[in-house]
Amino acid sequence: MSSKATIKTNKLKNALLKSHRDTQSSDSAFSEQVGGDWYKKLKLQPLDYCMDNNFNACQTKVIKYISRYNLKHKAIKDQVKDLDKAKHVIDMLIEKIKEK
């Protein structure tokens, strides 16, 4: 993708994100984030998505780690650490499913 196309795409994404954010009530807990801003960069907060879809704790944690790994961390080693956390939770979920 050319740099001009990337700039247009980023502007469109930012406009859509702002539009989505404007629909949220300012007194909603989902309109703020404590301790960072990486989830606010997403169109939909992972917890909101997980709650709307009745995900269990393992599913929710995996979505959280996958959603934030490259937004929260700049260093590759820290990004990999979040992905390793997601993989670990998936392994725990697999064990639980096999126990049934």
What does this structure look like?
- Helices cover 67% and strands 0% of the residues.
- The chain has 100 residues and is an all-alpha fold.
- It has two domains: 1-32; 33-100, no CATH class.
Short précis:
The chain is an all-alpha fold and 100 residues long. It contains four helices and no strands.
Mean pLDDT: 78
Largest sheet: none
| Classification by helices and strands | mainly alpha
User: Poorly predicted ranges (pLDDT <50, ≥5 residues)?
Assistant: none
Percent in helix: 55-70%
**Using only CA atoms, what is the Rg?**
16 Å
Strand content: under 5%
Distance between the termini: 47 Å
Shape: globular
- Number of separate structural domains: 2
Question: What is the topology?
Answer:
Elements: H1 3-22, H2 46-52, H3 57-72, H4 76-99
Name the descriptors.
single chain; 100 residues
